[in-house]
């Protein structure tokens, strides 16, 4: 019984400690801590380019609604009132041939309502609707493309922040190690076991490492500011970023699985041309330009409009039936000669279509080029993973051996410094290789349309 009661209590304590650790991980001092998911979510809400793209989509949707409104009749109603203030004249009327004098009538009331409807306008209405629909589709695809671009920018910049953080961490560890080494050499000098030149040499090495640390810290701050800007936040606000929200290593199995998911170069090109929203947007813009030619050509045809209305005017608010008038009408407008304006409009619309088709071809070529570049970058990143892994293992063994030989007096300080510097360079190269690989993966996913397909 006592044992069964302890188990829920221990579970509660464990959950409480886990929650406290989570809260501690999310708040470091007064600086907010962002995970990769947080950065993506905030960028989707705050990035100014995304907000502009969304506004463009809303405007294009309003344009489509307006194009549909051309199929509906236009309606209007108006009312007026006026009162004569000077030079009022008495009214005369005849009843059974007898003139009768009445009081002046200073008030005048009016009411009118009308309907107009375009029966035929040379198919311009239909072409205008097609153009508005393609414009909306293009704006929507551009918005999707902008969100994908911002998403990949956030991921790549997050990778750069984490890489800079790891480099700073390595530099600090190296500075701490150099300070300890300097203290040990000073102790040896005080004991008469080494020359003063060894102290000076280590002090120079420490200063050089501190210089590299300052430069690495500056690179980190710049990377953070760049990421905050992309997120739509103030670039100079303090912020931290979670290292645990991103893998810190790249195993060979992960590399092979990604290669299989990415596919061949030809498969990536086909997927990109079929799924990337920026290409779809360019194609919709070309279709909208085709509708522009139909709109311009429509002015060669006659236009037929139907109208109907009601008008009432009186000196008092009464007699709507006797004083009101109902009318119906048709208006046919036939173009005879427009000083070659229609031909000029058609040529300008054709030029726009040619430009839009060229934009599609240019973008398709750029996509092919970006996929080729992404494949080359990914291949180089995979090779750097293998090379830096071998180099790091060898540098660790060499540095450990140099320290052991130095402690027993069979190696000098220069041997230790050389081995330590090789280890630091190998560690930084390994860090850069891992994060460069994930950066290359994001480039390949975006360029090939894999990110869109997912």
TrEMBL record:
Organism name: Candidatus Kapaibacterium thiocyanatum
Family membership: Belongs to the outer membrane factor (OMF) (TC 1.B.17) family.
Signal peptide: 1-25
The protein's name in its UniProt record: Transporter
Organism domain of life: Bacteria
Transport among keywords: yes
UniProt cross-references to InterPro entries, sorted A to Z: CyaE, OMP_efflux, TolC-like
One Gene Ontology term, aspect cellular component: cell outer membrane
Location of this chain's protein in the cell: Cell outer membrane
Keywords assigned: Cell outer membrane, Membrane, Signal, Transmembrane, Transmembrane beta strand, Transport
Pfam families: OEP
Gene Ontology terms for molecular function: efflux transmembrane transporter activity; porin activity
Membrane among keywords: yes
């Amino acid at each position: 019984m006592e044992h069964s009661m302890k188990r829920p209590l221990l579970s509660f304590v464990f959950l409480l400690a886990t929650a406290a650790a989570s809260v501690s991980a999310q708040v470091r001092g007064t600086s907010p801590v962002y995970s990769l998911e947080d950065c993506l979510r905030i960028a989707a809400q705050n990035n100014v380019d995304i907000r502009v793209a969304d506004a463009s989509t809303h405007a294009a949707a309003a344009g489509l609604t307006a194009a549909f409104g051309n199929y509906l009749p236009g309606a209007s109603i108006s009312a007026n009132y006026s009162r004569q203030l000077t030079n009022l004249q008495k009214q005369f009327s005849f009843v059974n041939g007898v003139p009768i004098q009445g009081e002046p009538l200073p008030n005048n009331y009016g009411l009118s309502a009308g309907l107009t409807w375009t029966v035929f306008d040379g198919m311009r209405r239909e072409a205008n609707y097609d153009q508005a629909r393609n414009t909306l589709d293009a704006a929507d695809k551009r918005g999707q493309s902008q969100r994908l671009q911002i998403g990949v920018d956030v991921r790549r910049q997050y990778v750069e922040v984490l890489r800079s953080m790891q480099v700073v961490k390595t530099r600090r560890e190296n500075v701490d190690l150099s300070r300890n080494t300097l203290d040990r050499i000073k102790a040896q000098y005080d004991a008469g076991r080494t020359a003063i030149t060894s102290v000076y040499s280590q002090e120079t090495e420490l200063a050089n490492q501190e210089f590299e640390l300052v430069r690495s810290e500056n690179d980190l701050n710049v990377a953070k500011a760049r990421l905050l800007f992309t997120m739509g936040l103030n670039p100079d606000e303090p912020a931290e970023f979670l290292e645990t929200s991103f893998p810190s290593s790249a195993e060979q199995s992960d590399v092979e699985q990604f290669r299989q998911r990415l596919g061949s170069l030809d498969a990536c090109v086909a997927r990109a041309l079929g799924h990337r929203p920026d290409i779809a947007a360019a194609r919709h813009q070309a279709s909208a330009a085709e509708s522009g030619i139909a709109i311009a050509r429509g002015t060669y045809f006659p236009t037929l409009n139907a109208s109907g209305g009601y008008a009432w005017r009186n000196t008092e608010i009464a007699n709507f039936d006797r004083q009101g008038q109902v009318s119906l009408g048709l208006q046919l407008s036939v173009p005879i000669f427009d000083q070659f304006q229609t031909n000029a409009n058609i040529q300008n619309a054709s030029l726009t279509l040619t430009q839009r088709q060229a934009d599609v071809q240019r973008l398709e070529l750029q996509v092919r080029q970006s996929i080729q570049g992404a494949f080359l970058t990914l291949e180089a990143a995979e090779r750097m993973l293998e090379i830096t892994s071998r180099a790091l293992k060898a540098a660790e063994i060499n540095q450990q051996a140099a320290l052991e030989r130095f402690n027993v007096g069979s190696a000098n300080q220069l041997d230790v410094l050389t081995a330590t510097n090789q280890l630091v360079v190998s560690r930084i190269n390994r860090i850069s290789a891992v994060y460069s690989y994930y950066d290359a993966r994001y480039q390949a996913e975006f360029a090939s349309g894999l990110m869109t397909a997912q």
